[in-house]
Amino acid sequence: MKKIIVPVDFSEQSENALKTAASIAAKYGSELFVLHMLELSEALVSSNEQAHYEQAVFLIKLAEKRFETFLEKPYLKGISVTPIVKHHKVYSEVNAVAEKHQADLIVMGSRGTDGIKEIFVGSNAEKMVRNSNVPVLVIKDYIEGFEVKRFVFACDFEEENLEPFQRAKNLADKLGAELILVYVNTPGDNFLSTKDAFKKINKFLHLAKASLEVEIYNDYSVERGILAFSESRNADLIGLPTHGRKGLSHFLMGSIGEDVTNHSKIPVITFKI
């Protein structure tokens, strides 16, 4: 993990993410790119009027000053930090910055959302999970001395998950963490007998050329199963593949990655399929 992107908005949640990223950087010698999104209106940015131009410059300078003060943290001493100020929407701009700097990881803070707000508004972390080509680590609360010893990776063991699985396995190796694989079996049309579930899992592991054990966990929904299983194993991190569904498909089908990210108390990292 040579390069880590950390979007911040000066909130407690984004500082939790920054502290976590700093602890990772200190351990692995990573460079942090700390990104603040000013989100100026397009009309203000593109206007040719002198008054609008001056207002935009003033707001950018003000944000840069506040950003500079925000980064004067003792936990960042000795860590390579590059501050970046942008004015577009978070989920599109972060991806562009990550690709430009060839980042290995994005670390984001999140409050999580529930109910109507989750369905119709969502969160910036949710949008990043859906859009990012780079793995996204979502942090809710600050964890002092963040260390991953037990890393739960959950998927349905379809072939499309081979690349996310490999990326999760590589990450576990880098972190020196135990990789715990789980398949959540639910009632209804997706239910599999134990025999059929292991047949599917063994085929996947054969294609992945991996010799690992997989646990089958039964629950009423995949999300509930992942959360309950991870808590029962005292996981430090939950890893998930995500389709990054958009539009009507996202509204009708939802995303397990987004649901778990929103509701988990344990840090979650997603790998886009």
Automatic annotation (TrEMBL):
UspA domain sequence ranges: 1-140, 148-271
Transmembrane annotation, as ranges: none
Source domain of life: Bacteria
PANTHER family from the UniProt entry: STRESS RESPONSE PROTEIN NHAX, UNIVERSAL STRESS PROTEIN UP12
Family per record: Belongs to the universal stress protein A family.
Protein name: Nucleotide-binding universal stress protein, UspA family
